[in-house]
Amino acid sequence: MRSIIACAIVLLVVSCGGYNEGVVLKAEHAYLVFKGDTTAVTVSVDGGTAFALDAETQRYQIKPGKHEVKIYRNGNLVLTKTVILDNQITMEIEIP
After folding, report:
1. In what side-by-side order are the strands of the sheet with 76-85?
2. What residues form DSSP beta bridges with 55?
3. How would you write 24-85 as a 3-class SS string?
4. Which helix (H) or strand (E) holds 95?
5. Distance CA 23, CA 48 (A)
């Protein structure tokens, strides 16, 4: 009788707790950071609408993957760059 009670208690204790394992996936974002002289600069990503750089857009959120970045100063193209970004990666682009 004691062995049955002991087995029941052991099974109860063993089955109460368990090891939980999980995988945390971060949101799929990458970033472009623009450095250098940003006066009168606009940027176009993948042929989209060009936007002016200011304090808020100097760090631009983008989806991971391959992108073509074009940088214009006073309407003239000064830099074309193709970038390949992985998830949670930040790439700096130096503006001449």
Report:
1. 51-52, 41-45, 65-73, 76-85
2. none
3. CCCCCCEEEEEEECCCCEEEEECCCCCEECCCCCCEEEECCEEEEEEEEECCEEEEEEEEEE
4. strand 90-95
5. 35
| 19/88 Cα distance (integer angstroms) | 29
Q: How many other C-beta atoms can be found within 10 angstroms of the C-beta atom of residue 52?
A: 11
Q: Each residue of 38-84: pLDDT tens digit?
A: 888 999 999 999 998 876 667 889 999 999 999 999 999 999 999 99
Q: Are 37 and 1 in contact (CB under 8 A)?
A: no
The CA dihedral of 69, 71, 76, 78, to the nearest 10 degrees, is -90
**Single-letter amino acid code for the residue at 84:** I
Residue 92's identity, in one-letter code, is E
What CA–CA distances, in Å, run from 8 to 14, 18, 27? 10, 17, 45
